[in-house]
Amino acid sequence: MSAAPETIKDPQDVVAPPVATPGLRTFCLTALIAILIGHAIFGLRSIGARAADFEYFYKASHWLLENGNLDGRYDIVDGHQVPRGGIEWYLPVVPRLYTILSWMPHRVAGVIWLTFNIAVFFAMLQLLGRFMTGLPPQDWAVTQLVPVLALSLFWHWEFRLNQINNLTLLLLLAAFVQWQQGRRTLPGFWLGLAVLLKLTPGLLVVWFALKRQFRIVLVAGATVLLAGPVGDLIVFGPEMTRDAYQSWFQTAVVKGSHRGLVLNQREMDWRNQALGAVTSRLLHETNYHTHFDNDPRIRYPDQKLYINFANLPLPVVATLVLSIAGLSLLTLLWIARRPARACPTWQLRLEYALFIMAMLWFMPVMRRYHLVWMLPAVSVLLACMHHVTLRDIWSRVALAVIIIVAATQASILTRTFFETHAVEASGAFLLALPIVGVTLAWLILRLQRDPLAVPLDQFHPNPAALDALPEPARSHG
Fold first, then answer.
1. Residue 303, SS3?
2. Can you state the angle between helices 165-180 and 106-131, rounded to 10 degrees?
3. What is the distance between the alpha carbons of residues 446 and 11, in angstroms, rounded to a whole number?
4. pTM of the entire structure?
5. Closest Cα partner for 92 from 245, 194, 216, 237?
């Protein structure tokens, strides 16, 4: 298979993409605003109903303000303790951060958080559209409308539950974009904050280490250390901090790992699309009926639903899951093994999008709203399709993959018409990850052989990436 496009072997041969018309830009921006208004309405309803997940974050931080310690995960109703859900899987720094809001009434805090999330959403789209697509920066709304639509179900749930994945994604993209602009300190700070919020962005710290960007890695580590454990020591004191981290480690790392969840059969209902849960449902007699292990207030009728085609012992299933995850990690590290100066700009973008999406593959609990982290991958795929053109087989495969990703969301119709979650329980959303991942990896490997397989970005050239080009092309840089 020839490199694409075949005729472009010199950066000077590349013609800058045309700019969209003002009318098209207005239409796409209006469409994005309309979509976001729709999502925000559901978010407001959740806030008004004091529903998850914002309730958990608010009450955990409000408890901290009132009691000076971490959330007890219960409410006092008519003088009695009523257990409820919490955020015990998050590091203690998260409720500390939310105290910015929790001194206000719940509804006011929720509206402010939702408004902030809307601003974060548009800032994140602008980072993607202006700096990671190689298309006219002013056309960011045009380039990002289709990726948002392709993942519309996941964005619906992100805003409906007033989650923090949107903010985490913005921090990760800000780290990459500012690094590409030549900064070495702020990217590490943004990356460290993302790790504190979700922990799984630690995978991106590994990526920066593979790129030999050790200053960013050190700044990220210092941010995590100072804002996390050191800050907790100041706020809670040594004894409470020690107890908090011991409890968190047991809950999130030991019991909350893939192996822990499989062996204890927790978080195994259809809502969890993670590798361990899906594998358990397919290879063991695991009940996928709706069950909220993290919130005892939410009860569903006791019902047994199964989709397994085998009934392997749970230790075997857990070992298989860890083996798949381990092999996946080794493959990922091999793909991204080259230092930044040996990678063209497009390779760096594709790798970064791949690593963001890989966070989903490795996390033990993956809900619908987590899948908004696929946005950079879909956005960069579509951009590369534009630059490579549909004459190339890779672009045609990438188009089919994006259609498949969008189509998986139709699985919710099986609940509407057939009253079953069997399709999602089978891993419809999980399946999208390796399909997109292989497509990204395919182009990354082509770029390793031919750095001009995707034409150079005419709007944001990266001088450092010229080192990855063949000598004749580099001389024109």
1. coil
2. 30
3. 17
4. 0.92
5. 245
